[in-house]
Amino acid sequence: MRVYLDNAATTAMDDRVIEAMLPFMRQHYGNPSSVHSHGREVRSAIEKARKKVAELLNSSPTEIFFTSGGTEADNTALVCGIETHGIKHAITSPIEHHAVLHTLEDCAKKGKVKLSLLDVNNKGEINLDQLRELLQANPNSLVSLMHANNEIGNINDLAAIGGMTKEYGAFFHSDTVQTMGHFVHDLKNLPVDAIVSGGHKFHGPKGSGFLYVRKDKKIHPFIHGGAQERNMRGGTENVIGIVGIAKALELAYEDMAGHRAHIEGLKKHFIESLQYHLPEVGFNGLSADFEKSLYTVLNVSLPPSEENRGMLLFNLDLHGISASGGSACSSGATVGSHVLRAINHDPERESVRFSFSRFTTKEEIDYTVEKLKELYGVTV
Q1: In the annotation, is 329 catalytic?
Q2: Catalytic residue among 31, 322, 329, 373
Q3: Apex CA 371: angle with CA 366 and CA 375, to 5°?
Q4: How does pLDDT run across 83-93, given as a tens digit for each residue?
């Protein structure tokens, strides 16, 4: 049996998304910047997709810019937000995705900003009192805090953080890659200045994404070269990706509550099964808290085991189970998870991030539990 439980890294494309994209691979291949009919029909599809995304997020089409994914969107918001608005101080946390952390560290290294990192406790919760103190001491800051952590699932209260940043005139960016398509984002009523998306996290195509920038917080372009995306991103548009991400988001919103109920049921069953068969099991961050974490992510901390030390992911893979030790963007790195280090995770315990989608089944969860029992010598 082959089991895929790494949906926080990427998801399987929905067949309906593929069907929506196919005509733009076969018949509608014009360059959207061309003025002839082949170009105009493709331009129309892009603007229809932009309008659909904006409608779902309760924003304006003029605030949506298509990108190659979440990483480019994060880089654009941060680098260009700092440059456009003359920001000299940035605030983030040590458990952000590297698309944010490395970008802000690079800006600090180049002397563009002073960078402050918020404290996090052993559950990965950020210190909001410290955030307020930093905002008071540093007017016109940039704040970048993700909606939900991609490794331990912790959810941040964007409304509360956004209200605080607005109070002190800060530019508030949030990496929403893990929550887009899984939670409702009402951008007219949510006090954020920029959020991002990667289509492959909610059953859309890889290489597709978008950046939302509030119209009264406009920023300069990050990629120069052409007038595409209303002069905000040079380069011929990835039409099939744009059509695909809009369709994927539409499908996600069509039955978001149903998808959530299905996934939460699987996650609850997984937690209870693990606790019953492996009493020493633990859960990193807030990933086992249904009120405070992503319903799609469970970060499991397993008891010390000589047989599985440094080999657990490999051993699971041998049984056909795909999971992750952390962010897929850090695969191949030997330093381990920066998120787990930040929350003082016990290095003697192996940790695995299991992440689910609407295509995950109970049979896959049960199979995974059985194989973990075998790996840890549990016979009952």
Answers
A1: yes
A2: 329
A3: 150
A4: 999 999 999 99
